[in-house]
C-alpha cells in the first residue's frame, strides 16, 4: 500500500477534532503548500466547481490569513490569525468562518511530521464547546477536506521545487 490518503478523523475530547493525512512528499514541500498563497489557491478548493479567488497568508506570528471560496453565486469565507509558526514543523492559529451562525472560533494546531515515506500532517482543531464541535463535524467537513487533499496530492506529484 502506498503512503498517502485518505484522511483519518477522530474526536479525542468533547471539544476537539483530530485530522491526520499522509502525503508522499518531503515535509518542506508540504509545509510550503500550506503557507504560500499561490500554492494554497491551487489545492484548498474543496468540492468540484469551487475556486479560491482570495487567498492571503502571512506566515509569521501575528500574521493574518483570509480564504474566500466561490462557486457561482455561493460564497464561503474564513479569516484567522497565526499565533506561532515553526518552519517547517508547526502552525498554531485561531480562525472563524464569516458565515458561522454560532459566532464560534476554533484553534488549529497543525504539525508536519517527516517520515521516510513522506509527511504526516496532524491538525488538532479545538472548539469552544462540544455543541460547536459536533455542529462542525456534521457539516461534511471530512469529505471537503479529503477532496482538497487529493488536489494537494496532485500538486505535490508535480514535484515543483524539489
TrEMBL record:
Query: Where along the sequence do coiled-coil regions lie?
Result: none
Tell me which InterPro entries the record gives: ASHA1/2-like_C, START-like_dom_sf
The record's Pfam families line, in alphabetical order, gives: AHSA1
**SUPFAM superfamilies associated with the record:** Bet v1-like
Tell me the domain of life. Bacteria
Domain Activator of Hsp90 ATPase homologue 1/2-like C-terminal: from-to ranges: 25-156
Indicate the family of this protein.
Answer: Belongs to the AHA1 family.
Q: What is this protein called?
A: SRPBCC domain-containing protein
Amino acid at each position: 500500500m502506498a503512503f498517502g490518503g485518505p484522511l483519518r478523523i477522530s474526536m479525542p475530547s468533547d471539544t476537539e477534532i483530530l485530522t491526520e493525512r499522509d502525503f508522499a512528499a518531503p515535509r518542506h514541500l508540504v509545509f510550503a503548500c500550506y503557507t504560500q498563497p499561490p500554492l494554497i489557491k491551487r489545492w484548498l478548493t474543496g468540492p468540484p466547481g469551487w475556486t479560491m479567488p482570495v487567498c492571503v497568508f502571512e506566515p509569521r506570528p501575528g500574521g493574518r490569513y483570509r480564504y474566500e471560496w466561490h462557486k457561482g453565486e455561493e460564497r464561503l469565507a474564513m479569516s484567522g490569525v497565526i499565533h506561532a509558526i515553526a518552519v517547517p514543523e508547526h502552525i498554531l492559529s485561531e480562525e472563524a468562518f464569516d458565515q458561522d451562525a454560532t459566532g464560534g472560533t476554533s484553534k488549529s494546531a497543525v504539525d508536519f511530521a517527516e517520515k521516510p515515506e513522506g509527511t504526516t500532517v496532524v491538525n488538532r482543531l479545538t472548539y469552544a464547546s462540544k455543541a460547536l464541535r459536533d455542529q462542525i463535524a456534521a457539516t461534511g467537513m471530512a469529505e471537503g477536506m479529503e477532496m482538497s487533499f487529493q488536489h494537494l496530492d496532485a500538486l505535490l506529484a508535480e514535484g515543483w521545487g524539489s
